[in-house]
């Protein structure tokens, strides 16, 4: 996958065919002596805490952006909980009321950010 001077191409090709192998999973050139370790460390299937089986090399991204059990923070109370519980919690949490110190009305938490524009 790199440019090789024409004068060195034949020797380079022989060297590569003896020493390198293309990984059947990621198509990267890996030294033959390291292929087993590469497959075991990068492409072995692991189970996420959510139960999904995924390649080890993809687990970090899955846990950060796709896992339903990844940590998430409620926009109303800053409580940290699992992403799959966030919507239900925010619906309940945002419907709670707090007394406005300006006008004295009870205002739903989800409306607190816009309320100062209404009450002045």
Automatic annotation (TrEMBL):
Domain of life: Eukaryota
GO molecular function per UniProt: zinc ion binding
Pfam families named among the record's database cross-references: TRAFD1-XIAF1_ZnF (PF21366)
GO cellular component: mitochondrion
Domain (TRAFD1/XAF1 zinc finger) ranges: 78-120
One Gene Ontology term from the biological process aspect of the record: negative regulation of innate immune response
Record's function text: Negative feedback regulator that controls excessive innate immune responses. Regulates both Toll-like receptor 4 (TLR4) and DDX58/RIG1-like helicases (RLH) pathways. May inhibit the LTR pathway by direct interaction with TRAF6 and attenuation of NF-kappa-B activation. May negatively regulate the RLH pathway downstream from MAVS and upstream of NF-kappa-B and IRF3.
Stated name of the protein: TRAF-type zinc finger domain-containing protein 1
Organism: Crypturellus undulatus
